[in-house]
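From the pipeline queue, job 12 of 40. The input is one protein chain; the requested action is below.

Action: predict structure.
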Amino acid sequence: MPVDHYENFPVASLLLPRRLRRPVEAIYRFARSADDIADEGDASDAARLQGLADYREELARIERGEPPARAEFGSLAAEIREWHLPVQLLRDLLDAFAQDVTRKRYADYPELLDYCRRSANPVGRLLLHLVGRTGAEALHRSDCICTALQLTNFWQDVALDWRKQRVYLPQNDLARFGVGEEEIATGRWSEQWAALLEFQVDRTQRLMRAGAPLVHHLPGRMGWEIRLTVQGGLRILERIRRVRGDVFSRRPTLGAGDWPRIGGRALLMSVVGE
């Protein structure tokens, strides 16, 4: 459930049960290294796509029960076997990363949601498989949270994504609010831009809150992990709203002073059942 480089991914957190740390770390390493192939360095598009194709072949070998050709896939193969993780979810991540190489614009919100279905939602679904919560309602709420986290990342990283020639804001929303891409290129804030970001923050917040009841169906410390993740995402959305969408002057992030507030809100979720 990415924000940049999966920084909201609960990697070996002290809140995670010890038995889950190895599979979570294996999933994280796979996701981050594949994302780096698509994003980092100065490789050509062809080289990036080939690197992702190589990862896809490793998944096929694992699925066939064959040993991975590359040693770094050994731990992932072991966790897939032990936890019966659906390999298709990992393929979905690779599909999204490949799309980042070849596609830089999205016509509308449904197209963006389809990207999030593959770039973000598989992470949450894999976590649910680890804790045995794979009913339809749990999967739906997890998808809401993961997509909301991905969208939150997009809104806070508009300027960073522009440097990669990417615009995740739907093209029809830009037109609706009278905003042109030149405003992103120059980092120019306007009242129209503020209205556009307010609109995106509103619907992302609604999506996050629609997923939040998932935490009451997760066991023990995993439930607390996701409470904090949800509240962290909501806090970033608040910060974007507070600066009226001016993500150009300073990227909205969480600081030390935010964590007591996030912790208090996470505790309130368990008390009032939100």
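Job complete. Residues 1-6, 8-12 have pLDDT under 50 and may be disordered.
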